Amino acid sequence: MSDWYFEYEIQVNRPGLLGDIASLLGMLRVNIISINGVDEDRRGMLVHTDNDEAIERFRTIVSTMEHINVTKFRQPKLRDRLALRHGHYIPRDADEKNTFRFVRDELGILVDFMAELFKKEGHKLIGIRGMPRVGKTESIVAASVCANKKWIFLSSTMIKQTVRNKLAGDEFSDNNIFILDGIVTRRSSDERHLQLVREMMSMPSIKVVEHPDMFVQHSEYKIEDFDYIIELRHHPDEEITYEIMEKNHMMSESDSFGGF
């Protein structure tokens, strides 16, 4: 029993094309779970079958159809499932495959994407870049709610500047989502906070770091340590710069961390 993602590009958009494909799947006893357009000329399907031989027969037949061009046929990835839900693919950096880009109008997709990541167990380090008031923290919290996970702020500026130096009770659970602001933590002179961050980073849990590029400065961590990097912009051409953000934190002391 398995799910498969099937995507095709329409060469000739004739009446009945989708019906022909659906009928073929039906004859092979392959169930269609969902269908959606994932681009102007492409359509995706999530299908399920108890018989993988039927999938191979279907793949052979559709590859000979003149009016479509099969572009993907594979076991579904997270991006495939989200493309079906929302009608288009999440843009990914051509050079850095773990970097995904969103704009503020796509907050719903971003929350859905992060929630799916949060549902997976084990260590995961996620960085999120973006200018102030673009929706970074709100999206992380909303995704935590969607994933039915408790979120813990280690450092933040969401309401007021927060720097935690200890956790209590079930706050140390591996099932929690740990959130920190990379600029606030980088500038912190509280050794207890920095030690707490080290402990959190060593836990097999999900960590989300806002401003990851600032977090890794003068620290033992590297940007390559991040499993996913998310970029959130007000519009696609917005430049993400840290000069304004550092001024907003109103902290002018020198960058000395004592080994962080």
TrEMBL record:
<dbReference type="InterPro" id="IPR045865">
    <property type="entry name" value="ACT-like_dom_sf"/>
</dbReference>
<dbReference type="InterPro" id="IPR016784">
    <property type="entry name" value="UCP021288_ACT"/>
</dbReference>
<protein>
    <submittedName>
        <fullName>DUF3388 domain-containing protein</fullName>
    </submittedName>
</protein>
<feature type="domain" description="DUF3388">
    <location>
        <begin position="70"/>
        <end position="258"/>
    </location>
</feature>
<dbReference type="InterPro" id="IPR024514">
    <property type="entry name" value="DUF3388"/>
</dbReference>
<dbReference type="Pfam" id="PF11868">
    <property type="entry name" value="DUF3388"/>
</dbReference>
